[in-house]
User: What shape does this take?
Amino acid sequence: MTIVDPEKIVVDPNVVNITINDKPVLARKGEVIIAAADRTEDFIPRFCYHPRMSSVGMCRQCLVEVETPRGPMMVVSCMTPVAEGQIVRTATDSVKKAQEGVLELLLANHPLDCPVCDKGGECPLQDQAFSHGPGESRFVEEKRHYEKPIAISDIVYLDRERCILCDRCTRFADEVAGDPLISFTSRGNDTQVLTFPEEPFSSYFSGNTVQICPVGALTAKPYRFKARPWDLNETETTCTSCSVGCRIVVQSSRDELVRYQGVDIDPVNWGWLCDRGRYNFESVNSTQRLTTPLIKSDSGLVPSSWSVALDSAARIIRHALSTSADSVAILGGARGTNEDAFAWAMLADELKINQRDSQLGDGLTPEIFNLAQATIDETCAASTIILLAPDLKEELPVLYLRIRDAAQKRNSRIIEFSSHDSGLTPYAWRSVAFEPGRQAQVVRETLELQEIKEQIQRGEVVVVLGRANLAENEAFTLHALGEILHALPNAKILPVLRRGNVRGAVAVGLTPQQNSGDAIDILTKAAAGKINCLILLGANPLADVADSILVKQALVQIKNVISIDTFVTSSNTNADVVFPAAAFAEKNGTTTNLEGRVSNVTQQITPRGTSRPDWMIATELGLSLGIDLGISSLDELHQKMISSIPEFSSCADNSAIQSDGVLMVSEASATISRGSVNLVDRNSYSYRLIVSRTMYDAAQSTITSNSLVGIITESTIYVHPLDLARIGVVDGTNIRVGVDEINIVLPVRAHSGVHRGTAWLPYNHTNVDIRPLLNIAADVVDVRIEQIK
Amino acid sequence: MSRLTEKNLVIAKEIIARYPRSKSALIPLLHLAQEQTGYISRDAMVHLGELVGVTSAEVYGTASFYEMFRFEPIGKYLINICGTMSCALMGAEELMHHAEKRLGVKAGGTTQDGLFTLAHAECQAACTEAPCLQVNYRYRLRVTATDLDNLIDDLQNGKLNDEIPAHGVLSKVRQLIPADRAVGAVDPELVTESPVWLNGKPAL
Ligand code: SF4
Ligand code: SF4
Ligand code: FES
Ligand code: FES
Assistant: This one.
């Protein structure tokens, strides 16, 4: 026997020793019993407890016994913190009796309509009624009745008869999403979850409540009565609808996508998803999907075979290259996988096409990836988070959830710089407004304030950096960043460029090479007739590029357009060749999220028609051009990518890529310095434009998703209420917005989050095209807003 | 339609200022809104949400928890006739019948002119003075049929305007705390001292 000197035992103050069912368990200080038990084999039944939300003890299902000096005591394990020496029993006779009792009461008013309930088969109530329930009910009285299901939003339906009042949905809406639009109403036997009368639960995160509802009370329109859980096939993958890269499970039935569910991974999404990412799977199923290659004919695009299409594309490219390599350009590539982008970059290398850009003039220079990078976790742990970014709630929704959480529940303070109020403004410690174009100056002055200086000295500072305003020169954002880095050389950057895999596409080389110009330069050259062939890799410049006049001119001038896409779009209707691309969930590969996290995307269904992954199209097109890229399988391509792209050298571990992902290698080699642009003053009669995206805009994947298309709102311009009074029209009436000789007519609304002298114009909405107002060459855009007489 | 009036808005702001967190003022504000129109309208809930910084759904969730908040219009005078044991023994049922006949509405109904709402009530804690009723929460004790008729006459003629405010309001006297006497809004998280009742300092 070894004798241990008690003085020498190192005690971790954060570890608490307890026993659960006579087995020793190491618990963390402050955690509740059920959380500790979840790391053992002993399952404690529960309905209301959710590890990502605060405990409320609503359902009482998690009763266990804890030894006390006066004998065993029944406690709710989701509310009772662990304590040193605590003895917990989860399956004694009295615990079983108590749990059965609670279940019997929960079932008293439950309609037991499992056969017609979407949740049946994956329902915690059903499962736990079997595992921990009494087996039968003594309740013979009439059950409570409510109108079955009521729509509480465009997407979510509520069946109050099934609800067990666990407070998960209402707690989520309040605590996690910050949209408390549903609430318990009435009391006692009449208690029910409801929205405010005639006000929908229009939260961007409503789908999460459906996922976490422990019964079938909340269901979502896109999945209602589509499939039974035991018929579903599923695979774990990564959402690429935006660059947050949430981890998801993709489920299909009969080779059709039917549902996405969030997967809880610690570094990214914690199980949450946004509704756009969750429900735009409908666009993959869309009947409008391209299923065969199309080629131009006198009567427009007509279906063709792959070989004919590849031949004609090859002919076009060869012909254009015979003039000069500079007469060919590639736009796009940020919507596919890393491997897709890599294959195209290899092909472009072979063909010496330097003009390529996966950003479409709405991002920032790739140099920002070469600054000291922060992960999402590091950002949320920083004591100061500086926001110099678009509205994260609109553009990178789950990142908004994470940062909101950091500001609300952890010790981070947000200093926001923005031109109009964002979803994070209510949670910002300081929110500093600037007129578009003035951010560098405003940042400089703000950082000199005493209280701000004190705050940023408290610890780590992370700058969340992105392009907030499409009607403003990119340089302004970089200059403002330059000011921050000048004052805080150690600040790290979380770049928030929004397109799904923009980081991966840039890393593999779908970005301007050899000092050639970016997307806007390419389009400008094209408009001047200097580009003969444009290859669109899932890009729709007519919708994506802010300056529609430029794009239109360019498309008129370009001789030949080759498009790789999942749909016919406004930009490829006149293309010479359109190749049908395999969509998300129809192909394997990897993707890179905004923090540089590489994780896998997986195939769940067969590609529609004869569509193929982009990388395969690149290889085949190469062969038609007499170039062998040397790729015979995706695996080979992936290996080639990680061995030849230094950023991906960290990605050899496949099992990590298939779960939490692996951070790509980044080197802090760039510097962004201060600078200034001579900005003209706005004349007092005009309004400086802020053009930004909202979650439900007319994006291709949204307009082709049946459940989402109805949520897209019409183009509207927002001004400060006092400015609306100055214009002299009633809220909601049509007004004329003009720049020089261009005028458009659209409704105006008062918005107290918009500052005086500015106007906020959400980008890419329906009804009115606002793009003609935007001149990409201008530093800022000032518009007239006038009554229509 | 019925957001708070200018006058009530002033009172509302004064009430909000009493609390460290605005949303704590919600219940008194709901009473205020009910006082204004006799019930809590949709617009009033929206307005209160704006005033205290919560969503309308949260206002509705809170308000609907309480039985005495009403969400449907009600007569100017709410007559609650007690029907619990003592009152029942002392003729409450007959009193109710009489009231129904006199007003021409059944219990629970509102007269056509919008003046009276008649309702059953449970024990109003005046059992020794049975049968009793409350009109806009003001007691009438040992009520006979004649008393009731007189009461209704008086209310119709406006004789009781001073004593009985419209719309079933609870408060007899509106509490106004002069600014110099108010403790003011202290954020509980900023309080470092122990509460007054612990450290022995006299309360205001
Ligand atoms: S609807 Fe579902 S999540 Fe919401 S309280 Fe009822 S059972 Fe819980
Ligand atoms: S936040 Fe982005 S990555 Fe996450 S679910 Fe939404 S669209 Fe997908
Ligand atoms: S899970 Fe503990 S009370 Fe509901
Ligand atoms: S029984 Fe009528 S007041 Fe008590």
